Amino acid sequence: QSLQENLQETAAAPGPASSSSSSSSEGSWLGDQVPQVAIDEGVFKYVLLRLTDSSTGRSRLLVRGAAAAAYHNHILQHTKAQLDKLLPRGSFQLDVLGGGRIEHHAEQGVIRVYGYSAAFGPAVHEVTAALLRRWYPFYAADSITCSYEGY
After folding, report:
1. What are the backbone angles phi and psi of residue 125, rounded to the nearest 5°?
2. What is the distance in angstroms between the CA of the first residue and the CA of the last residue of the chain?
3. Catalytic residue (choose from 72, 74, 78, 125)
4. 107 CB contacts (<8 Å, ≥6 apart)?
5. What DSSP line would sit under 30-75, residue for residue?
6. What is the pTM for the complete model shown?
7. How far apart are CA 70 and CA 116, in angstroms?
8. Could you confirm whether 105 is annotated as catalytic?
9. I need a labelling partner for 76 at 20 to 30 A (CA). Which of 46, 52, 117, 137 fits?
10. Nearest one of 137, 126, 116 to 46, comparing CA atoms
C-alpha cells in the first residue's frame, strides 16, 4: 500500500478525531488535545503535518493554514512554538508532509485545497480534504474540493 493510500485511509477512518498509529487502549495522549485543523478564512498557505509521540510512536495528522504567513515555513515554525507550550520538549516529533494553498469561504461553506509548497512540495490534498470534511461536518461533502493545479 502506498503512503498516499495509507494517509487517505487514516484521514477518512471513522471514529475518534485523532489519527493514531496505535490502539486507543494505551490511554490518553497530550497530542489528543491538539486540534487537528486550524485554518483561517480567505486564501492562504497551508501545511499538512504529522505529530508523533516520541516514546510511543502514536501520531495524528494536523492541517495548519494562516493568512498572515508569507511562507509555508512560517506556519511550521508557529505550530512548533504552539506545541512547545502544550507538550513537554522532546516528547514529540513534527514532520511536514507537504503544503499548498486553501481557499476557505466559511459563509458559503466552501473550501478548496490546491497548489504546492516550494519549500515542502505538495501535500496529499485528498488527505487534507478528508480531514477538513471531518472537521467541518456541516459543510456539504462536495463543497470541500482539491486539485493540484495552480500555486
Report:
1. -65, -30
2. 29
3. 72
4. none
5. GGGGS-SEE--SEEEEEEEEEEEETTT--EEEEEEEETT-SSHHHH
6. 0.82
7. 14
8. no
9. 137
10. 116
